[in-house]
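Fill-in record for Protein disulfide-isomerase.
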Amino acid sequence: CGHCKRLIPEYNEAANVLAEKNSNIKLVSVDATSEQTLAIEYKITGYPTMMFFNKQVKLNYGGGRTAQSIVDWLIQMTGPAYVEITENIEDVLAEKKISVAFYMEYTTKDSDIFKMFNEAGDSNREIAKFFVKKNDKHDKIYCYRKNENKVEYDKKLTLTEFVNTESFPLFGEINTENYRFYAESPKELVWVCATTEQYNEIKDQVRLAAAELRDKTHFVLLNIPEYSEHAKSSLGVNEFPGLAYQSTDGRYLLPNPKEALYNYKDIVAFFNDVMNGKIQKSLKSEPIPDEDKNAPVKVVVGNSFIDIVLESGKDVLLEIYAPWCGHCKRLEPVYEDLGRKLKKYDSIIIAKMDGTLNESPVKDFEWSGFPTIFFIKAGSKVPLPYEGERSLKGFVDFLNKHATNTPISVDGVPALEDGTSEEL
């Protein structure tokens, strides 16, 4: 693994730095190709994978891959959960350039609220910094976020819920470093795609809307032009500024965003319309192609998915492919051969869809790799994943087991009376 080879010297240097600091943290490595039982136990699927064990609790490593970033992350994850200060908290945050922090003014460390604050800090080391300062008059907790007003803990939520909610900005930039935290949150993402200039123009109105919708959503800024391709290909936002709401049942685009994003009431009204079924889902789709009855494989796009795959009244074998995928390219001649040889069966459609340019309007059809192949029986809306051999015989065997009308036979793979097939 090339990534592993590049990591080794940095990992070794991090171990040396920790040793020089007389740290109790030990760095170890495991060859997962040799220790396969261990790899299976910890569900290792890619390399390198780094995990941190603290007090027998496993955490996925969330730092960088340089020696210093490894050391910094490990120090952050160990030691005291908070930093005691005597200075003004705002001066400390400005000096250290900290984006999110929780701060407690306490009367005694023996109080229940202080113990809860310490536990919250210990459990959330990755997402925020925690500071405390002695105060003889009161116990108060605040969240400070860069460029936003501080928020005082009012005890309407548990302290853990308060930390989990307020550690995310009302409207902050999303990037490769913090995406994992947003992805792991149960809340739905609202992507605002804008340039820096546009962000400065709309941020106050968007924050007002985000505050009103905070219980269910995270508003994030996707920087344009840095992520313009992602905005277009994955979110369906082609003009900027724009807003895409990714809910659990689909994606919705804010109508007339060049005006609506400048008025928080219009943004909130959009979400109300989504909840009331007044806004249609946005579906990524190529134009529906002209039908080629002689083509061995039928082309499906997002906007023709329901008609062809779910409502044709026929069995459908559907390949989700990517134009750049090597496995897909190797499968193509086999799949087209299958399509040609099954033309005589009117009850079966052999189809394909470019999974990089199209989406399924149905939640049950999801894919994370290419090619992904589904079989959909006539009259059913539930896909059966194809996990057999990617050969003519493999496909015919599968269809003889699952198709509506059998037996199925093609040249070279005749069907037997029991519905199975045997290669000549």
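KEY FINDING: The first helix runs from residue 2 to 20.
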